[in-house]
Specification:
With about 350 residues, the chain is α+β, with helices and mostly antiparallel strands. The chain has two domains: about 90 residues; about 190 residues, no CATH class. The protein is about 35% helix and about 25% strand. The two termini are about 35 Å apart.
Length: about 350
């Protein structure tokens, strides 16, 4: 009898989780389809909107990711090593520094990413450290962990003895400055100042050094700024790349290749037209995917969750009926469920 009850509870739990994930994907999919895609300069306030444009940080507010790279937004997933070579997720934290989105319409949207549903496929970095090594972590990595110490529920950022040490895996994903960002959320009027200051005339020295290091070690940035295609970055190419990233990150003056209507490189302040943040009962979704790619991904997850959820329910009913001496095959149970769902 114990195993009957255990089996029923197990399959009920699995089926419930899968169906819950499916319902969340369905709500998200419907919200995306029902939310209008707007231009920031003319978009309506007080409603859910979708915007898409290049993301960059406010001047003087550089966000440094755990790996030391300048970033607009990052996600850090923490997993703990268990037996049988298994990694269990312990925490997932997201940077909360606000950033701007410029869609080329002549105005900006300020995005506050706290409590967002973040879906990034950008540059991925992984590290493995044991807790007895926490006092010797790279400075930027340790600083990021301390920054999120108030957000952690289970993870404890403190050095332990080797005998009590646990092994952790840290996975970082970035939204890099100047890259396209898709944002869906509740648009409200901007708080405080409604304009941004004029762009810097030159890049701060510490930021220039970080950008240079980032260009030299990141394969995608190497390809982007290797203008002569010889596979090597000259000092001139790194310098040009540093200036380009400065324009994208801070909105520096000058430079070619600006989008029509973009405030970057302008001589005057630009309007912050809207603020997008998490609102109670509303979804805040941020991604480096396009809307089409997001919709395709959500539909795939929805189909998989519904199929596996229904399958778990079928197995649960078959298991319960088999132990109740009722002889029905899984196919007969599935047919009965489909007839009930179709109202026959």
């Amino acid at each position: 009898m114990f195993w009957v009850v255990f089996g029923i509870l197990l399959f009920s739990y699995i089926g419930g989780i899968l169906l819950h994930k499916g319902s969340y994907s369905l709500r998200t999919l419907r919200t995306i389809e029902d939310s209008p895609t707007v231009r920031i300069a003319t978009g309506a306030l007080g409603t859910n909107v979708e915007i898409s444009g290049r993301a960059f940080s406010p001047p003087g507010q550089v966000l440094i990711a755990p790996d030391g790279s300048p970033a607009v937004l990052y996600e850090l997933k923490i997993e703990r090593h268990r037996k049988q070579k298994r990694w269990d997720r312990v925490e997932t934290v997201v940077s909360t520094d606000p950033f701007w989105v410029d869609d080329g319409s002549g105005a900006l949207a300020m995005v506050w990413p706290a409590k967002c549903d973040l879906r990034l496929s950008g540059r991925k970095c992984e590290w493995e450290y044991s807790s007895h090594q926490f006092d010797s972590l790279p400075p930027d990595f340790a600083k990021a962990l301390r920054r999120h110490s108030g957000d952690f529920v289970s993870f404890k950022f403190r050095t332990q003895s080797r005998a009590l040490s646990s092994k952790y895996r840290f996975t970082q994903r970035l939204l890099l400055p100047g890259y396209k960002a898709y944002v869906m959320g509740f648009a409200d009027k901007p708080e405080g100042a409604s304009t941004i200051p004029k762009p810097y005339d030159s890049l701060p020295a510490d930021s220039a050094e970080r950008f240079g290091k980032m260009i030299r070690r990141d394969k995608w940035l190497k390809l982007r700024f290797d203008t002569d295609g010889d596979g090597e970055l000259s000092d001139a190419e790194v310098a040009a790349g540093t200036v380009a990233m400065g324009r994208e990150m801070f909105g520096l003056r000058g430079g070619a290749g600006q989008e029509e209507g973009s405030i970057e490189g302008g001589e005057s302040s630009a309007d912050v037209r809207m603020t997008i943040r998490k609102k109670e009962g509303a979804l805040l979704l941020i991604s480096d995917h396009s809307e089409t790619a997001l919709v395709d991904s959500l539909r795939s997850r929805l189909n998989n969750s519904i199929f596996m959820g229904v399958y778990s329910v079928v197995v649960l009913l078959w298991y319960a009926l088999a132990h109740a001496d009722v002889v029905l095959s899984p196919d007969e149970i599935m047919d009965g469920l489909m007839q009930a769902l179709l109202g026959r």
